[in-house]
Amino acid sequence: MRGFEYVRATDVGSAVALVSGDPGASYLAGGTTQLDLMLKDAVVPQGLLVDIGRLPLRGIATDGDVLRVGALTTMEELAADPVVAERVPFVSEALLAGASTQLRNMATIGGNLLQRTRCRYFRDIAVTDCNKRTPGSGCAAVTGAARMHAILGASAHCIALHASDLCVPLRALDAEVRVEGAAGQRTIAFADLHVMPGERPDVETVLRHGEMISEVLVPLLPAGTRSGYLKVRDRVSYEFALTSAAAALSIEDGVITLARLALGGVGTVPWRATEAERVLVGAPATARTFLAAAEAAIQDPFTVPGTEFKVELAKRTIVRVLRTVSGEQS
């Protein structure tokens, strides 16, 4: 087993100080991916591991039309929350589709937001061409097997997929994250948290070293708004999405008055389909409208032979989730 130094933090301030003061230090919460990255895959150097699992950052509270979710709240706890089930059910659906029951009882919300890509090339240290691990080395996925890779926000520099299910509805909802760091607390719009690879695929979020997510602020949908999450995958259980979509619609007299749409399984970051939303709002809730929205959502995809199928599959996923949420059958 690869060695590392372990410390259990007693409060937020000391945890932040420990990690901020050591370039090789990192946080440990549920540990469902961090330990794999360090010990099994060995793509993250071993160093100081600061356990924050017992800090008071767990719980769910309603504050007006916002749900305040502690970063150490587990996936299972959030999925089972009655306010989530009533006001943002697609969040619960995404969580339940995201992992096995055992993992959901361990994995934390903060950790889910910051999970690293499942790109097989990134996680295999025998692969030398990985700009995410070694900037400037290339991207083996572009010429290799790439079925589980991205087509939006991708480029020849990197096509690694952001694999989180939860992040998809959170992106649709314009959630925010509160973070604690050496310079104090700040709030980051969810849309700004993740960084598209560009020429620096190794930079994945805007968090500074030592910053820790303490809370996620989830806006609740207006009463009467319907939402749904659809995940298309090779097998029903314990599998990442080929494509997914989170949709929320308000419809009055057959016309869409509010539309939120985000995509998973296709983006290097959780992907908001803003062009599709523009097509939807003010239009009739019909199959024709949903097809137009799907076309608008998939603009300028970067595909390689292994990912070309995702263009059409993503469009079909969008149409299906919109029809389901709206109740449109024709």
UniProtKB/TrEMBL annotation:
Entry keyword set: Oxidoreductase
Chain ranges of the FAD-binding PCMH-type domain: 1-223
InterPro entries: CO_DH_flav_C, CO_DH_flav_C_dom_sf, Diverse_Substr_Oxidored, FAD-bd_PCMH, FAD-bd_PCMH-like_sf, FAD-bd_PCMH_sub1, FAD-bd_PCMH_sub2, Mopterin_DH_FAD-bd
GO molecular function, one term: oxidoreductase activity
Superkingdom to which the source organism belongs: Bacteria
Name of the protein: Xanthine dehydrogenase YagS FAD-binding subunit
